Amino acid sequence: MTEETKEVKSLNFLEEIVENDLRENKNGGRVLTRFPPEPNGYLHLGHAKSICLNFGLAQKYGGQTNLRFDDTNPITEDTEYVDSIKADVRWLGFDWAAELYASDYFAQLYEFAKKLIQLGLAYVDDSTAEAIASQKGTPTEPGQESPFRHRSIEENLDLFERMKAGEFPDGSRVLRAKIDMASPNMHFRDPVIYRIKHAHHHRTGNEWCIYPMYDFAHGQSDSIENITHSICTLEFIPHRPLYDWFIEKLDIFPSHQYEFARLNLTYTVMSKRKLKQLVEEGHVAGWDDPRMPTLSGARRRGYTPEAIRDFCERIGVAKRDNLIDVGLLEFCVREQLNKTATRVMVVLDPDPIKVVITNYPEGQTEELSIENNPENPEEGNRAVTFSREILVEREDFMENPPKKFFRLAPGNRVRLKGAYIIECNEVVKDAEGKVTELHCTYVPESKSGSDTSGLKVQGTIHWVNAADAVPVEVRLYDRLFQVEDLAEAEGDFKDHLNPNSLQVVQAFAEPSLRDASGKAYQFLRKGYFNLDTDSTEDRLIFNRTVGLKDSWAKDQKKK
Ligand code: ATP
Ligand code: MG
């Protein structure tokens, strides 16, 4: 880019914070962020936003990013999720400085808790969960102190150690921070910081039967790692004073928390809990179902990491919750695939019409050379067979067409993509009147690339050679939900599932697709597609990644 054309992009508020910190030489000019998923599900597009932000910010300012698994809840977490998260972050194009686990810090966190007890800032509470909840008060009414709040430091230490030793059953006791039962911030009303849970943990096994709560684990984990900028979503704003309180009382490295608006997309849900329900109740084929807003679903559908990063860049960083049009994501995918996809011809019709080219020699087959990608001549050409009998989509023919129908009709001329101009002379029907064949003649001098016919035709249609067309399955996807804003929709979110979100179509592909690989294809006039992982050697299956029509860009022009 030259100086004149360089776009001056204003900084987002997080970049402003980092630049300010760097100017003040805070943390010695060091920038260390973290991406902290809980391994209780697969990552979704909202996480992509967080990943791009955390890794992007560090990259921009010469810093680094840790991948930290927030695995303090043994019941819901699993190594399957850990592995998928690592694969997804890598796929998105990011590399972490260190792979870390909150569970690595269990011993340290336990020591932190004992320190709080010794400072008189934590106590063991024998109250039931219900009693603790009922003592909490409301935002406008102060809470009540627990009868166990004034235990001695010695007694608290003894009980906490015995909690750890496994002497007490689940739910019989908790450790609470001793802060202020009248605080206007509910999180300050003696929050529970440790609970008893006799459960197997995916990494620490049965070593622990007490587990720290989110608020006691997250900030301290940040601090242990010397994280400089701890970025999370807006719902954690009320937790921030507590985050700071623990760090201050424990006198440990002062990480700071900053909040941004989470990504919400139209026509989908973005919560692992809900996505898990869709998987477990069989509404989709799995976490990587191409209709899912998960990264594994997006990948399987043919979305590229470049397109997702571009999308995250375009939506920017907001401080207020909003709903993003999924059309923008599709626009980014289309933009990218337009540059990279190999163009091929597929007759997307289980019941195509056979076109017999009556003046083409019987038994002759020729190889046409058709370019793979007009956007990128370097991709060269491929050979496509052509002969006397070809297949076209039924909707590309009309016996009594309206005025501007530039496809096949009696007496009409069209160009067969990459081949010849043909003219439709005769319509053959069966006893029920259904069209079975079209008899056409071709113009030998009209071959694409060396057309000397002088004929002008308005329409070009795609086709496949009948003799060697490959039957394939094509999966056409629509929105997973029927309503735009699920947060506003009434009833259960699953009431709004789109019953027609998957349509399976049998189709006929040009033979080059026999060797289809993991790359992107544009089925001419149809959209962008990729080979699905369900494919076998003798059964090729393609996903429609996204259609060709760009409703989003059009809408923007209208606005
Ligand atoms: P979910 O509700 O889907 O389980 P979560 O926030 O509980 O999401 P975590 O695994 O705890 O999921 O999230 C890891 C990081 O990703 C957190 O920093 C979280 O704030 C961020 N994140 C999660 N969902 C979104 C979203 N929709 N937009 C932006 N960031 C998100
Ligand atoms: Mg969570």
From TrEMBL:
A single GO BP: glutamyl-tRNA aminoacylation
Binding residue positions for L-glutamine: 70, 214
All residue ranges annotated as the Glutamyl/glutaminyl-tRNA synthetase class Ib catalytic domain in the record: 31-338
GO CC terms, sorted: cytosol
Placement of sequence motif 'KMSKS' region: 269-273
Catalytic activity: tRNA(Gln) + L-glutamine + ATP = L-glutaminyl-tRNA(Gln) + AMP + diphosphate
Glutamyl/glutaminyl-tRNA synthetase class Ib anti-codon binding domain boundaries: 341-442
Localization per Swiss-Prot or TrEMBL: Cytoplasm
Binding positions for ATP per the UniProt entry: 38-40, 44-50, 233, 262-263, 270-272
Pfam families (UniProt xref): tRNA-synt_1c, tRNA-synt_1c_C, tRNA-synt_1c_C2
Keywords: Aminoacyl-tRNA synthetase, ATP-binding, Cytoplasm, Ligase, Nucleotide-binding, Protein biosynthesis
One GO molecular-function entry: glutamine-tRNA ligase activity
Main localization category: cytoplasm
UniProt short sequence motif 'HIGH' region, positions renumbered to this chain: 37-47
Domain tRNA synthetases class I (E and Q) anti-codon binding: 460-532
InterPro entries: aa-tRNA-synth_I_CS (IPR001412), Gln-tRNA-synth (IPR004514), Gln/Glu-tRNA_Ligase (IPR050132), Gln_tRNA_ligase_bac (IPR022861), Glu/Gln-tRNA-synth (IPR000924), Glu/Gln-tRNA-synth_Ib_cat-dom (IPR020058), Glu/Gln-tRNA-synth_Ib_codon-bd (IPR020059), Rbsml_bL25/Gln-tRNA_synth_N (IPR020056)
EC number(s) stated in the UniProt entry for this protein: 6.1.1.18
Subunit structure: Monomer.
Cited NCBIfam families: glnS, PRK14703.1
Family that this chain belongs to: Belongs to the class-I aminoacyl-tRNA synthetase family.
Protein name listed in UniProt: Glutamine--tRNA ligase
Organism of derivation: Siphonobacter curvatus
Gene giving rise to this polypeptide: glnS
